[in-house]
């Protein structure tokens, strides 16, 4: 992007990020972020059936790091909630 922000978009995931650093550092971090982002959607789709289930203590542990964060975010809830409620924060993290 023209204002030194990074735009990452894949399917329904759309992220605009900014690193306040020297240009060479920013470019290196953006490259790392782009590389990591390239697998995010596939990782989530692989566990989508699990992530769409209402949270319960019996829910199996997900394999992927983002899916694990999503489940952790809703763990212990006493209302109807699925790990999908935490997808934006977990992906951004």
Structure description:
By secondary structure, this protein is an alpha+beta fold. The chain has two domains: 1-38; 43-93, no CATH class. It is 45% helix and 13% strand. The chain contains five helices and two strands. The protein has helices at residues 23-37, 40-46, 48-51, 65-74, 87-92, and strands at 5-10, 13-18. It has a two-stranded antiparallel sheet. A hairpin with a 2-residue loop joins β1 (5-10) and β2 (13-18). The longest helix has 15 residues, at 23-37. The radius of gyration is 15 Å and the shape is elongated. The two termini are 21 Å apart.
Task: Annotate the secondary structure layout.
Blueprint: E1 5-10, E2 13-18, H1 23-37, H2 40-46, H3 48-51, H4 65-74, H5 87-92
Antiparallel strand pairs: 1-2
InterPro entries: ApbE-like_sf
């Amino acid at each position: 992007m023209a204002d030194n922000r990074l735009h990452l978009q894949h399917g329904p995931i759309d992220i605009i990020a900014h690193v306040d650093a020297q240009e060479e550092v920013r470019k290196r971090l953006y490259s790392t972020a782009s590389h990591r982002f390239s697998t995010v959607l596939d990782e989530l789709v692989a566990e989508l059936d699990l992530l769409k289930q209402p949270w319960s203590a019996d829910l199996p542990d997900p394999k992927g790091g983002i899916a694990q964060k999503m489940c952790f975010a809703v763990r212990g809830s006493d209302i109807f909630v699925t790990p999908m409620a935490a997808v934006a924060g977990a992906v951004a993290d």
